[in-house]
Design a protein that fits this description.
Number of domains: 1
Distance between the termini: 79 Å
Number of strands: 6
Largest sheet: 4 strands, antiparallel
Strand content: 15-25%
Order of helices and strands: HHEEEEEE
Structural class: alpha+beta
């Protein structure tokens, strides 16, 4: 008499109860391919969103300079005069960019060749920030005439950064 545990159906179910090494290796390879594609894309999107935030902060600061100019007939390098809250012992320009960008303003602008009051808002990646790895768009500038200039991390002008 044949034992019930020795049927071909029973042997087949025991053999297919786990994964083979080849199946596991296929899964690992597929995951590696997905990660190799997803991580750079994610990093690029994060950099791009931080750029957008930096450009927005620069334009907000330029707008506040123009508003201040309309009443004081001059531009200001004092953030509290522009409506920014005092932080710590003094006032800082907007920190809406977190620790990714440093925002400064030069009054008068060292680049201005015309006459009259001027300013230059400069947004640069903060020291130690992951935005320092952003090769395409390193620094943004806005002046009192609304000129928007962007530079790569190597210093080459790249104004397409304002449209991204």
């Amino acid at each position: 008499m044949q034992d019930m545990n020795d049927t071909p159906l029973h042997r087949r179910s025991i053999r297919s109860a786990g994964f083979t090494l080849i199946e596991l290796m296929v899964v690992v390879v597929i995951l590696a391919i997905v990660i190799a594609i997803a991580v750079p894309t994610y990093t690029s999107q994060v950099q791009q969103s931080r750029r957008t935030e930096a450009r927005t902060a620069a334009l907000d600061l330029a707008s506040r300079e123009e508003k201040y100019f309309s009443t004081a007939n001059s531009y200001s390098f004092d953030p509290t005069q522009l409506g920014y809250a005092a932080v710590g012992s003094g006032a800082d320009f907007p920190q809406s960019t977190g620790n990714y960008y440093q925002i400064t303003v030069d009054v008068p602008s060292p680049n201005w060749v015309g006459s009259g009051p001027s300013f230059l808002v400069i947004v640069t990646p903060a020291t130690g920030s992951s935005q320092n790895n952003d090769i395409a768009c390193g620094k943004f500038e806005v002046d009192q005439t609304g000129n928007q200039t962007a530079y790569t991390s190597s210093g080459t002008q790249n104004n397409t950064c304002w449209q991204q």
